[in-house]
Design a protein that fits this description.
The chain is mostly helical and 192 residues long. It contains 11 helices and no strands. The longest helix is centred in the last third of the chain and has 24 residues. The N and C termini lie far apart (60 Å). InterPro entries: RVT-Znf. It comes from Vicia faba.
């Protein structure tokens, strides 16, 4: 059933329906219209039910890593990081090779297939005590550090990725130490 929108209706609702034209066909509109007062938050909740849940959402949500690391993780999950393959498409960068191993650079390659970054991942994830919140922080911080080191090498030409694992582990410890319930696990991670 189609919903009629009055010309004097909510400008927010009209703009939402312009972005998502399929929203006009939602069957939940009937129940929302029947109530004595229309509530935009109820309509928003109904919209959310239609959106499929992605596998990486738990990794980004409630992650206590630094906000910039979580944001970079979110960009990587959406394949929106400015890697050389994306920069070449918009004619900003002209050399497509990975700075670490000289293969074609993409998000997939940079963070998961590159020989150099694989060593970083192995170093960070070697601890068997990385679970839950620790694993979320480790993934976010590893992606952040790999991206940050890549940019340092590209733009400064004189930086190495040698101490990255130690920087990531130190950051996890420093970030989580403020939560007393995690301190015994921090000791286990440091001892392993």
């Amino acid at each position: 059933m189609l919903m009629d929108i009055k010309n004097n209706g909510s400008w927010i609702l009209r703009s939402i329906l312009q972005i998502r034209p399929d929203a006009k066909r939602l069957t939940q509109w009937d129940s929302l219209k029947r109530s004595e007062k229309f509530r935009l938050n109820k309509a928003y909740i109904e919209f959310l039910k239609e959106i499929p849940n992605v596998v990486w959402s738990g990794l980004v949500r409630s992650n206590i890593a630094r906000p910039r690391a979580v944001f970079l993780l979110w960009l990587a999950c959406h394949k929106r990081l400015p890697t050389k393959d994306r920069l070449m498409k918009i004619d900003i960068f002209h050399q497509p090779n990975c700075i670490f191993c000289n293969c074609a650079e993409s998000v997939q390659h940079l963070f998961f297939e590159c020989n150099v970054t694989s060593v970083v991942w192995e170093g960070v994830l070697r601890s068997k005590n990385l679970r839950g919140q620790f694993l979320k922080i480790a993934v976010a911080k590893t992606i952040y550090e790999i991206g940050w080191n890549r940019n340092r090498i590209v733009y400064n030409k004189n930086y190495t990725i040698r101490n990255t694992v130690n920087v990531i582990v130190d950051n996890i410890v420093n970030r989580v130490w403020v939560f007393p319930k995690y301190r015994h696990r921090i000791v286990q991670i440091l001892l392993s």
